[in-house]
Amino acid sequence: MKNLQNKKAFICDMDGVIYHGNKLLPGVLEFVQWLQKEEKKFLFLTNSSARTLRELSQKLARMGLDVDESHFYTSARATAIFLAAQKPGGSAYVIGDAGIINALYDEGYSINDTNPDYVVVSESANYDYARLCHAVKLVFSGAKLIGTNPDLTGPTEAGIVPATGALMAPIELTTGAKAYYVGKPNPLMMRNALKKLGCQREETVIVGDRMDTDIIAGVEAEIATVLVLSGVTQREDLPTYAYQPDYILNGVGDIVPD
Fold first, then answer.
1. Which position among 15, 117, 209, 212 bears the catalytic label?
2. pTM of the prediction?
3. Measured over all CA atoms, what is the biggest interatomic distance in the chain, rounded to whole angstroms?
């Protein structure tokens, strides 16, 4: 634990690590206070793309955590940066909420439902059959298919719900196209996170609740990994994976020294 506590930078997932829905998880307040007191560099890195950075900061504020929006990085931001590098000034048809739409606008993209360069899919309350059919039509017309993240499920206060990977499946199955996913475990997102932190991978640890995104992202980026059992992956799931985390904890509160 001393090696873990001595890390200079912490990359933390949010859903299942910091909160479930609008409920802060046990030990999180003490963990964030410890990060701030010890002047650790930290980044809340989430595959969720629904909220803007400001909305994420405000959400934590409502739960009693004072965290500036500079400490957040989302798959929406990573997706927008990726698309702007691939095709500057392009356009996209988006199934998604404010997080991805605002990120695309910030990178000089326009929203286009007629002849977009890309169809971008993320988790959204606006996902419906009409939008699904329109996305299929656009992909058949030549639009490239992009997913903000590959997660099939996500944790909420009410239990497990479908996430972007599951919502993308009907489009892929109908068109035969394969989406490119920008979020974790894509190494692009991890490299961007390290750049934002200004730290080397040896100084950093990633804390997450999912073996299939958070932990494999750390393994592939050669960053130390912490699996917390407060979200999706449980201890009994571990034997099914060919890779293992460096640390297994009940929650982030276990990182704080006694």
1. 15
2. 0.88
3. 59
